[in-house]
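Thread: zinc ion complex, take 2
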Amino acid sequence: MAGSLHSSAAERVGYITRLQSFSACHRLHSVHLSDEENAKVYGKCNNPNGHGHNYTVEVTVRGKIDRVTGMVMNLTDLKRCIEEVIMIPLDHKNLDKDVPYFATVVSTTENLAVYIWDNMVKVLPPGQLYEIKIHETDKNIVVYRGE
Ligand SMILES: Nc1nc2c(c(=O)[nH]1)N=C([C@H](O)[C@H](O)COP(=O)(O)OP(=O)(O)OP(=O)(O)O)CN2
Ligand SMILES: [Zn+2]
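Output below.
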């Protein structure tokens, strides 16, 4: 088809997403703030006893749909990456105490998305990671695209 965006020679781009749920506890507390400031900024989420979430992460990869395989990437490979980057270090963990990154970085969902992004790019083919979306609760959702 002459002039078509998707002539037979063109490559099509697709987005594939895999969902992964995990459970973890945390406390919102910044090392850059006093105890009083922490209590004021984070309220109940600064309670020293912490609290838990059942997080759901959406990992989206963008890439050319390979003509031969029909895939952007094999979802089985993405599943392996998610196991390594999300499940092993984060599931059933205390984010602040068990994950060294969060010793000095406050464990907000924004920072959790950055942590997952930074580690996911290390195990995925270059330039393929498109988006990390985290559902912290049914109502609280964070998106990070590496900016
Ligand atoms: N910008 C951010 N704000 C807040 C974060 C965060 O990660 N980024 N996190 C929290 C708390 O950790 C916690 O997630 C809040 O939980 P909660 O208020 O219970 O969640 P809901 O709003 O969904 O609950 P409802 O009380 O039913 O509305 C706080 N802020
Ligand atoms: Zn929380």
